[in-house]
Write a structure and sequence with these properties.
By secondary structure, the chain is of the alpha/beta class. It folds into two domains: about 10-245, Aldolase class I (TIM Barrel); about 255-325, Putative flavin oxidoreducatase, domain 2 (Non-ribosomal Peptide Synthetase Peptidyl Carrier Protein, Chain A), CATH 1.10.1200.80. It contains 14 helices and eight strands. It has helices spanning about 30-35, 50-55, 60, 80-90, 110-115, 125-135, 155-165, 190-200, 210-220, 240-245, 255-275, 275-290, 300-305, 310-325, and strands spanning about 20, 40-50, 75-80, 100-105, 140-145, 170-175, 205, 225-230. It has an eight-stranded parallel β-barrel, surrounded by six helices. The protein is globular, with a radius of gyration of 19 Å. About 50% of the residues are buried.
């Protein structure tokens, strides 16, 4: 197994390979900055359309924004055309990412219909062509994120990984589900372990990491070089601090409502600097739901949050949440 990361992390995080995964609608500049402040080893952008980039779509470029607090970050691209992805790499290389990741696992129908995301698992050789084109476009390392396969009858992750590695991929992230599963059922960590034994490049694991204990357990059980935390980090930037506590032999403490409210407030303040108050508050509605999920009194506050559209309204809700015992 290869545990040596093929890209540079910040000096104080080189021994902490626990990353915020690319999550559409969530891992924007504001939330990445917050997770980075809470100790994430590396944070990935939301997946960015290569087609939109080369067409100079302004909103797409907003996804590449990085807060000064996030000294190192990763960019994830999606697309199906090797030439377009090569041009997209030339563009995003200017943002100085540590690594550029190719999404070969997104199960969303809109992405799949375009031939991108998990649709690429049906065409392993196209993945090789894309990775080779991306590698030729800049010196920034290129990795890929995949699923086990399209469905239970076509689990070809070992073949896909071999082709990608031969084309120059520096690392492989495996989400232990097929495209057909979506996010249902249980992630197959045994598949991650098998890929670790098979691969000549570092393998990162993804799937069913909702707690610091699960993050440590995934790495221990599979031998993966790093762990992607996706849904487990939504509304919970504290998970990275908790993982570090566990690594150091301490029992991680749970954040209090006041601590959660303070993190959420900072998140919204950061978002406003990038999106303006109105758009940031609209986008923050889903984040507020994530922050308060599972907490006493959260349901009543979420009912109000879905119609809130100003910082003052959210500040009032967060004050009420922090005050709840």
């Amino acid at each position: 197994m290869n545990h040596e990361l093929p890209f540079a992390l910040a000096e104080d995080r080189r021994e902490f390979p626990f990353f915020l995964a690319p999550v559409a609608g969530y891992s924007d500049a504001a939330y990445r900055a917050l997770c980075y402040e809470h100790g994430a080893g590396l944070c990935y952008t939301e997946m960015v359309s290569a087609e939109a980039l080369v067409r100079h779509h302004p909103i797409t470029r907003e996804l590449l924004q990085r807060d000064p607090a996030e000294t190192v970050y990763a960019i994830q691209l999606f697309g199906a055309n090797p030439d377009v992805l090569a041009r997209a790499v030339e563009i995003v290389a200017a943002w100085n990412p540590a690594v550029i990741d190719l999404n070969c696992g997104c199960p969303v129908p809109k992405i799949v219909k375009s031939g991108a995301g998990s649709a690429l698992l049906k065409e392993p050789h196209r993945i090789g062509e894309i990775v080779r084109a991306m590698r030729s476009a800049s010196s920034v390392p290129v990795s890929i994120k995949i699923r086990k396969g399209w469905d239970a009858g076509s689990e070809n992750y070992l073949e896909v990984a071999a082709i990608a590695i031969d084309a120059g991929a520096c690392a492989i992230t495996l989400h232990g589900r097929t495209r057909a599963q979506g996010y249902a059922g249980t992630a197959d960590w045994d598949a991650i372990s098998k890929l670790v034994q098979y691969s000549s490049v570092p393998v990162f694991g993804s799937g069913d990491v909702f707690s610091p204990q699960q993050a440590i357990a995934m790495r221990g059980k599979t031998g993966c070089a790093g762990v992607m935390v996706a849904r487990g980090a939504m509304g919970n930037p504290f998970i990275f601090e908790q993982i570090r506590s566990l690594m150091q032999g301490a029992i991680p403490s749970n954040p209090t409502p006041a601590m959660i409210a303070e993190a959420a407030r900072r998140h919204l303040q950061l978002a406003i600097t990038y999106l303006g108050e109105h758009t940031a508050c609209i986008e923050f509605r889903k984040h507020f739901c994530a922050y308060t999920k599972g907490h006493p009194g959260g349901a009543a506050l979420r009912a109000k949050a879905v119609t809130s559209s100003t910082f003052a309204e959210f500040e009032d809700l967060l004050y009420r949440f922090a005050s709840h015992t």
